[in-house]
């Protein structure tokens, strides 16, 4: 069996476990939020330390967030958005059919 098919089998087995799909979705969301903050920060030419100062956070907290390692609270997202001069938009919508 190839490494790829072993990985596919393991992934399928893990995703069938209770709660796995929800955990995967939360991880994906944390990654996407972190990536967005990193892009906005880099567009401004800021270091993580500069963003941390502006958002009243530590550099390590910004690094963890950008890496998708934490799911932030709404107040943290608001501080990051304000520091970056961005608008925080939180929506609930029905999925497209």
From TrEMBL:
Q: Which Pfam families match?
A: HTH_31 (PF13560)
InterPro entries noted in UniProt: Cro/C1-type_HTH, Lambda_DNA-bd_dom_sf, TransReg_Diox_bact_type
- Keyword Transcription included in the entry's annotation: no
**Mind listing the UniProt keywords for this protein, alphabetically?**
DNA-binding
The segment(s) forming the HTH cro/C1-type domain are 37-91
Protein's recorded name? HTH cro/C1-type domain-containing protein
Species assigned in the record: Actinocorallia libanotica
